[in-house]
Design a protein that fits this description.
50% of the residues lie in helices and 8% in strands. The chain is mainly alpha-helical. The protein has 9 helices and 3 strands; from the N terminus they run ααααβββααααα. The radius of gyration is 24 Å and the shape is globular.
């Protein structure tokens, strides 16, 4: 697959406290380099024969591919997160943040704290929507990895030094504040709307045990603490015997 560079989403000359020089350098040198490396890896993978290549070599290339693809995707999201008035959060986005963080101010404090923890280090701070739980969560993605499986990032802050050193030197705090002033919340809200349309993974339905009473972890724990673990096994055993599984009533539920 041939990857193509994405147009720069934000207009660098409109940003408040961030110079066009910084954005253009970041876009051309760091994002561009990641994209070029991704295409090199894609060519290497297409050319090799897995049957004649060591498993270690294939594994190394696939790890590099994942990290470099994440780098390109997160850079694209980072540039698409800039260009607005970070103070004005649209109503729908404000309501979603309020639902999951209490209020916009609490979300902001947590997001900034995560970014501050990466000052002088490396990584990303992401606001991600998780379809399984239908909620937003702030988190760190270190070294272009360790993101949330199944999550959809809708806002990204790059905390690698290349993202701010030309304008801010080692003053990561000032860079974080500048980023927060320039968030394009309309774009974030549009991505949130798209993310909420993604169906969560289907829930497990065990049709072979239609009459088995459902129990929460708390209910199971309470029964064990009350000295009733045999009762749990009896319910499961009855269901197994009803289905003719041949387990002869021996079933253990954790």
């Amino acid at each position: 697959m041939k990857y193509t560079i994405a147009p720069l989403f934000c207009r660098p000359w409109t940003l408040n406290g961030i110079t066009p020089r910084l954005i253009e350098s970041h876009y051309e040198n760091d994002y561009g380099s990641a994209l070029n490396r991704l295409n090199e890896i894609a060519e290497e993978l297409a050319a090799l024969d897995p049957a004649k290549t060591s498993a270690h070599a294939v594994s190394r290339l696939k790890r590099d591919e994942a990290a470099t693809l994440n780098s390109t995707l997160l850079h694209e999201l980072y540039f698409a997160s800039l260009g607005g008035d970070g103070r004005m959060v649209p109503e729908e986005m404000s309501a979603a943040i309020g639902r999951d963080f209490g209020c916009v101010a609490q979300w902001r404090d947590e997001f900034i704290a995560l970014a501050g923890a990466l000052a002088g280090s490396s990584g990303w701070v992401l606001l991600t929507y998780v379809p399984r739980d239908a909620r937003l969560i702030n988190h760190i993605a270190a070294d272009h990895n360790y993101s949330i499986a199944g999550g959809i990032p809708i806002l990204a802050l790059d905390m690698y030094e290349h993202a701010y050193h030309l304008d801010f030197a080692a003053n990561a705090t000032a860079y974080i504040a500048a980023f927060m002033r320039n968030i394009d919340w309309d774009a974030v809200q549009a991505r949130y709307g798209n993310a909420t349309k993604v169906e969560p993974p289907p829930k497990l339905v065990q049709k072979q045990w239609p009459d088995l009473p459902s129990m929460t972890v708390e209910e199971v724990r309470a029964m064990i603490e009350a000295g009733q673990p045999i009762q749990i096994n009896r319910y499961a055993a009855e269901a197994l015997q009803h289905q003719g599984t041949g387990h002869h009533g021996r079933c253990h539920l954790a």
